[in-house]
Specification:
Elements (H helix, E strand, L loop, with lengths): L1 H9 L1 H30 L5
Amino acid sequence: MNVFFRDFFSDPVLFLSFGILGTVIVLCAYYVYYFMKKINESEAPE
């Protein structure tokens, strides 16, 4: 396990790949929360 962390922090391609992937997942989760909140707060058309 120590080798994985050493390689993870020493390889910029691997580090940036996981960083960008994490950022995309966080943005997707935010937008799911945002739209679900807006849907629940909206009024039903009559």
